[in-house]
Design a protein that fits this description.
Shape: flat
Helix content: 25-40%
Largest sheet: 4 strands, mixed
Distance between the termini: 36 Å
Order of helices and strands: EEEEHHEEEEHEEEHHH
Organism: Cellulosilyticum lentocellum (strain ATCC 49066 / DSM 5427 / NCIMB 11756 / RHM5)
Strand order of the largest sheet: 1-2-4-3
Pfam family, one: YgjP-like
Number of helices: 6
Number of strands: 11
InterPro entries: UTP_pyrophosphatase-like (IPR053136), YgjP-like_metallopeptidase (IPR002725)
Protein name: YgjP-like metallopeptidase domain-containing protein
Oligomer: single chain
Strand content: 25-35%
Structural class: alpha/beta
Length: 230
């Protein structure tokens, strides 16, 4: 039996099978299919409630298992600070280097080569510069609110790291640039709280003081951190 439901704008479809088993189980296949097995006689509404209750985990697993884009593949559009920009490539033999810029609501790449690998790397480098500048800009906004603020910022194209920080340096994944500014602010302030020894109730109090809607940002990050693709 095939069922589906909508979870915060994402349609989740799953196959329900009844078998002689003790409890409802949910499995995600390598192909991205959601299979649900329920004990014979279980109310369909009980099954639906169980699956809906696991929606955040299901979405996370679906995106975690999704094949990563090829290192030489370009996207039709790129997301920067939460907004989408259609990719436009302009080729000219007169150019000596690849230039990337925002122009007329598009991400424009002026290039002397048709190599998708080189173009993609230029886009990644552009994101690195933008993310580095944006993090430093947001740090200035919170500098007076904390005793310790890292002075260095490093941006990497490394899928094993999303964001980490200590007293001296912030290391961010280039894909942080995909996030809306309020999500970047949430990550920064949360890190600054930890660096300055604010934990548990003190951290929550500080977060509520600086970013009243931080719970929404936390939820967004949990749901979307595995969807950030460049």
């Amino acid at each position: 039996m095939k069922l589906n439901f909508d979870y915060k704008g994402t349609k989740i479809t799953y196959d329900l099978t009844y078998k002689k088993t003790k409890a409802i189980s949910i499995k995600i296949t390598e192909e991205g299919k959601v299979n649900v097995i329920a004990p014979i006689g279980t109310s369909i509404y009980a099954v639906m409630d169980k699956v809906k209750g696991n929606a955040p985990w299901i979405i996370s697993e679906l995106y975690r298992n999704r094949p990563q884009a090829s290192q030489s593949q370009l996207l039709e559009q790129y997301t920067y600070l939460g907004k989408n920009y259609k990719l436009e490539i302009v080729t000219s033999s007169e150019l000596k280097e690849i230039k990337v810029k925002m122009l007329r609501g598009k991400l424009v790449v002026e290039t002397y080569t048709e190599s998708t690998a080189e173009i993609r790397q230029a886009i990644i480098d552009w994101y690195k510069q933008k993310v580095n500048a944006k993090i430093k800009e947001r740090l200035k906004a919170y500098k007076e609110m904390f005793e310790m603020v890292p002075a260095q910022v490093e941006v990497m194209d490394d899928n094993t790291i999303l964001f980490r920080s200590d007293e001296t340096c912030i290391t961010a994944n280039v894909r942080v640039g995909i996030m809306p500014v309020e999500i970047i602010d949430y990550i920064l302030v949360s890190s600054l709280c930890r660096i300055n020894g604010l934990v548990d109730g003190k951290e929550v109090g500080k977060m509520e003081e600086i970013i009243p809607s931080f719970e929404k940002s936390k939820e967004w990050l949990e749901e979307n951190k595995n969807k950030l693709t460049l």
